[in-house]
Design goal:
Blueprint: H1 2-37, H2 41-54, H3 59-98, E1 103-105, E2 115-117, E3 131-137, E4 142-150, E5 158-163, E6 166-169, E7 176-181, E8 184-191, H4 199-205, E9 212-220, E10 223-232, H5 235-275, H6 280-286
Antiparallel strand pairs: 1-2, 2-3, 3-4, 4-8, 5-6, 5-9, 7-8, 9-10
Helix pairs in contact: 1-2, 1-3, 2-3, 3-5, 3-6, 4-5
Length: 288
């Protein structure tokens, strides 16, 4: 009789403990559902994770938690897509507003990505002067080009731009091209894909000021010397590069938002494929 009572007590205690565990796990699930309904996705995920960590044997609650986690993840990706759609629309509207300011060039036979330029800065219109021009590709990557014209080569490879005591240096560029035409020497030094040390941003920020630029040639690993001093940028050049810089920022933002939206779409497809998977119960047991 005594032995039977002990067994009955143990069984009763086990049932009570199991019910207690299920109740505690269910409380976290209820909290997760409430957080999900109010759009507090981080709290919902924390509550679901608590079930997995604290109550690994509460199988039914865990299964429900997994299903709810998938709904949370789906809602998060839909939220990201909605936000990115808004940002894409905003960037696209900004681009449409200013695109008429630029000339677009793309030879489909040789170019995968087209280029935006300013007509007034075209090389064939400026063969008689030394100046800085810009261009932006369709993905928003901006290139500054230092164009030199003179009676002899100076072999320059970087620039300093200044407004009063403020200045910016470009890095040394190894993208250089030199040629001679009718006894005149020409040099083109390109600072590609925004690798200009902040020069384009500096010009944009100081487009209404007098900007001086000096051409330099590197003469050793830690030294360099000026080879053409204190040229003054024209107002047209300053404004052209400022416009191109604005275009670059818009197109870079558009590229980024399109990329983030595409990534969210991929995640959403994956999540929805998991939601259709009927083997979720096995997954709960395999994780134990």
């Amino acid at each position: 009789m005594r032995k039977s009572l002990i067994i009955l007590a143990v069984i009763t205690l086990a049932i009570s403990c199991k019910e207690n565990i299920e109740d505690k796990a269910a409380k976290h699930l209820d909290n997760a559902k409430e957080a999900f309904s109010t759009g507090n996705y981080n709290v919902a995920k924390q509550e679901i994770d608590s079930i997995r960590i604290l109550y690994p044997n509460a199988f039914e609650i865990r299964r429900q938690g997994i299903r709810l986690m998938q709904q949370v993840e789906e809602a998060e990706q839909l939220q990201v897509i909605e936000y990115e759609d808004g940002m894409i629309a905003e960037a696209t509207a900004a681009f449409e507003k200013i695109k008429a300011n630029f000339t677009f060039e793309k030879d489909e036979r040789y170019q995968d990505v087209g280029l935006f330029t300013i007509k007034s800065q075209a090389p064939n219109r400026n063969i008689d002067r030394t100046y800085i021009r810009g261009q932006v590709d369709e993905q928003g990557k901006m290139t500054l080009i230092s164009s030199y014209r003179g009676s002899s080569y100076i072999h320059h490879d970087w620039l300093k731009l200044s407004v009063g005591d403020n200045y910016v240096d470009t890095p040394v560029s190894y993208d250089r091209h030199e040629f001679k035409d009718l006894g005149v020497c020409y040099e083109r030094v390109s600072f590609i894909n925004g690798n200009d040390g902040g020069a384009a941003a500096f010009i944009s920020a100081n487009k209404d000021a007098d900007i001086l630029f000096t051409l330099y040639r590197q003469t050793g690993p830690d030294s360099s010397r000026p080879v053409y001093r204190n040229l003054k940028m024209t107002k047209d050049d300053r404004y052209a590069i400022a416009q191109l810089y604005e275009l670059s920022q818009i197109l870079l933002a558009l590229e980024e938002h399109n990329s983030l939206r595409a990534e969210a779409e991929r995640h959403l497809t994956f999540i929805r494929s998991k939601m259709k998977d009927e083997s979720i119960e096995n997954a709960v047991q395999e994780n134990n």
